[in-house]
Amino acid sequence: MRLSQPSKAGLILVGCFACGRRQDDPSHGQVSDWKRAVVDGEQVLICPECFPTVSGLDACTTCSSTMLVKRLGEVSCRSCGATWFSAQLAASARGDRSALADEVAAAIDRLLGGSSPLG
Ligand SMILES: [Zn+2]
Ligand SMILES: [Zn+2]
């Protein structure tokens, strides 16, 4: 019996996936060096120092790039442009409706929030 409920939906994009360091606010006109990737179907941020060495990232099945972006339950490869549904969404389809609801709510939050510092 599993009692722990994954509640990562509200915790994404807060710090480095590998070292936990918080992302610095990029100054005006500066582009953040932080990388976005996907781990277990969850969008994560990785600082420039950890990105070359971090392991466990989901990789594109087409080009093996780990520069993935998750959006509306769909994962996109920033390298070759391939898209596919995230494993989490597939799990949701198998009956975990609360995870799907969280996913949709998070997506709506992002849409309504408007500002996405990483584009
Ligand atoms: Zn880091
Ligand atoms: Zn790719």
Task: Provide a descriptive summary of the structure in words.
The chain has 119 residues and is of the alpha+beta class. The chain has one domain. Helices cover 20% and strands 18% of the residues. It is built from 2 helices and 5 strands; from the N terminus they run E-E-E-E-E-H-H. The strands form 2 sheets. The chain has a 3-stranded antiparallel beta sheet with strand order 3-4-5. It has a two-stranded antiparallel sheet with strand order 1-2. A hairpin with a 2-residue loop joins strand 1 and strand 2. Helix 1 crosses helix 2. The longest helix is centred in the C-terminal third of the chain and has 17 residues. The termini are far apart. 22% of the residues are buried. About 8% of the residues have low confidence. One zinc ion binds next to loops.
Keywords for this entry:
alpha+beta, two-stranded antiparallel ribbon, globular, binds zinc ion
At a glance:
With 119 residues, this protein is of the alpha+beta class. 20% of the residues lie in helices and 18% in strands.
List the SSEs and their pairings.
Layout: E1 35-39, E2 42-46, E3 68-71, E4 74-77, E5 83-85, H1 87-93, H2 97-113
Helix pairs in contact: 1-2
Bound molecules: zinc ion (2 copies).
One zinc ion binds next to loops.
Question: Percent helix among the residues?
Answer: 10-25%
Structural class: alpha+beta
Quaternary structure of the protein:
single chain
Quick one: how many beta strands? 5
